[in-house]
Amino acid sequence: MAVSQKNSGGWNTRSWLNLRTTVQILAFLGFLVLFLNALPLLMCLDPLAMLANLIASRSFTPLSALALIMVALSLVFGRAWCGWLCPLGTMLEWFSFNRWRKKQSRRPDWWRSVKYILLMAIIAAAVFSNLTLMVLDPLTIMVRTFALSVWPGLDAILTAIESALNNVPALGDSVARFDNAIRPWLFPTESLYYRDGLIFALAFIGIISLNLVAERFWCRYICPLGAFYGLTAKISLIRRRVDGNCTRCKLCQDTCPTSAIDRKKDCSSDPGECIMCLKCMDSCPCATSDFGRALAPARWNTYDPGLRQALMGMGAAAILAILFRVTPLARRDNTRLIRPPGSTERAMASRCIRCGQCIKSCPTAAIQPSQAEAGAEGLWTPVIVPRIGFCQYSCNACGQACPVQAIPPLPLKEKRTTPIGWAFIDRNRCLPWADNQPCIVCEEMCPVPDKAIILNTVESENADGSRIKLQRPTVVKGRCIGCGLCEYKCPVNGEAAIRVQSYGYN
Predict the structure, then answer these.
(1) Rg over CA atoms, the chain
(2) What is the model's pTM?
(3) Could you tell me whether strands 467-475 and 382-384 are parallel, antiparallel, or unpaired per DSSP bridges?
(4) What is the pLDDT confidence band of residue 12, given thresholds at 50, 70 and 90?
(5) Per-residue pLDDT tens for 293-348?
(6) Helix (H) or strand (E) holding 292
(7) Is-contact 503 421, C-beta < 8 A?
(8) Helices 151-166/172-182 angle, 10° precision
(9) What does the alpha-carbon distance between residue 200 and residue 218 come to, in Å, rounded to a whole number?
(10) pLDDT tens-digit profile of 157-206?
């Protein structure tokens, strides 16, 4: 059945538009549910992420087969993902800024080539086992931004409100009950902190703000996943059609959020740019357009990918791969490069799609986006920063959340015995060693059953000549798994007196 402006079994344009709005809301709520539970299903529905990972890692993960469902749907409905399901696309529609933007104007068509060049660059870089450009995938953008910026920000706002309400004696019990009801399933039991949260927030605001230049600017000109779906849409079964009664009034062209309709081409639309939003049908006064079967492939446009775009994308990928590996940041001898349990540098380089699922799943915020530790090529891959959070001994959530097994799903028993580093004591900062002050926090906190930190009782002399007995900690390297709990709990201000290094495990 074609989707048309005329009634068809009780369904008219308004019915279809209401259905689309409902689907968008449900899809966004589905994104939030998957996000809050750190489930890998969301990223496994991303065909670009799964394809890039397949090429880069030269291996196949069973869950990645789910992406084939989305590819099959795109061969039927074109870029309907962008207009109906994509959480970033939905937010771009909610914050369209139509009232503030100047009159709709068409940008140069060659701008649309950018997203295809980025798509080619991602695929070409994957051949070099480089997935750095996956930071531009819309689903990785959404998960990273919500995990590192939006949810911590909402948690901070809620905590501030609760603190203010707690000052009112009559509200104390109600606030406590409310807090217990939403933690830890909605927000963490303790406030968590993440590096680069402001950068991710500003980048996301920038993507939304591009709507001031053109409606759905990101979808039109930049989104590599949109480019992927744009290619499959060229041969999709359901497309927009215009009959011979069209008066070329231009209303559909002015309404189209991606400027996919061209009045100079008989008001026909490019299925590679059409997101199936149905707004054109709603604006048409003559009911001359509908969405129905189209068997012949769509015509190719000047901005569609060709040899030139392919060469530009592959060239950009090759240059980036070379630059990433020859710059000083490419060195991998950083002793603070501590990866999640079971992961290796090779796995991170060839598998990690920078989605942030592991970061969201970590209950202690031990996993952070890497900065300089992993070099430019490993930017924003997960690293453990013990001074911010520790790797919980009874937790293996990161491996279960990773959709591409860059962090392997280790059983809890195996995870507990898998070393990610080893702790060492800086005797120039340790209180019992440097200042003759009693402190055994690190030994008390060590979760390893046989204790990786032992205490040696010694007699020392204070500055005033008096004698004192102290227990000084020593690390037993063979027992330490590098969880970082000792470093996290170390009472020394600033850099901890006991720190975890990654020697020998990556």
Answers:
(1) 27
(2) 0.91
(3) unpaired
(4) confident
(5) 988 888 898 888 888 878 888 888 777 777 766 665 555 567 889 999 999 888 89
(6) strand 289-293
(7) yes
(8) 160
(9) 16
(10) 999 999 999 888 888 899 999 999 988 888 988 888 899 899 999 999 99
| CA pseudo-torsion sign 302, 307, 311, 313 | positive
Tokens 């926090």 correspond to 441
Q: Which residue has the tokens 């060693």?
A: 433
DSSP 1-52: --EESS-BTTB-HHHHHHHHHHHHHHHHHHHHHHHHTT-THHHHT-HHHHHH
Q: Letter for the amino acid at 185?
A: W
Assess contact for 143 and 360: CB atoms under 8 A: yes
Range with the poorest average pLDDT among 271-275, 291-295, 381-385, 429-433: 291-295
Question: What are the angstrom distances between the C-alpha of 426 and each of 111, 157, 255, 431, 480?
Answer: 55, 38, 65, 10, 16
DSSP-derived 3-state class of residue 55? helix
Distance from the Cα of residue 46 to its chain's centroid: 12
- DSSP readout, 387-441? TT----TT--HHHHH-TT-SS----HHHHHT--S-EEEE-TTT-IIIII-----H
Of 269, 193, 228, the closest CA to residue 52 belongs to 228
Tokens encoding 432: 């019992």
The residue extents of the domains of the chain are 1-332, 345-501
Q: How far apart are CA 395 and CA 392, in angstroms?
A: 5
